[in-house]
Write a structure and sequence with these properties.
Blueprint lengths: L2 H17 L8 E8 L9 E3 H15 E14 L2 E12 L4 E13 L2 E8 L2 H8 L4
Amino acid sequence: MSKENVQALQRITAHFNENGEWGPVELYDPEVTFTTRGDIGGSQTYAGHKGLVDAMASFREAWAHITPQILDLIEGEDVVIAVIRFELCSQTGVKLKVEEAWVYWFREGRVKRVEQHATVPGALEAAGLSG
């Protein structure tokens, strides 16, 4: 696994926990795409840096507090799967912990694509690492 890719994911997670935002923006390709899980209300794809802002606004409609913690990283060529535990608190105060597997594709050291998956096997398949 590229040390730079791991460091980028660690910076992204730390930034999110400190600021509640996707940044730092320089870690994302200008044409980045983010695709949400398809099993919860249908999948949606957001594009570009503005798309990341829009996706966060959508998450904030449901969740007042979101804290991600990386539990494991699975490597591939220019792709990393991050197994993440999210501690969530809804706008109405309901607390929840969930684990998801997010696939991050990299281009020239920046995230070019992110997909949210409910399970590690689903993420492995999406990343082309299941075979």
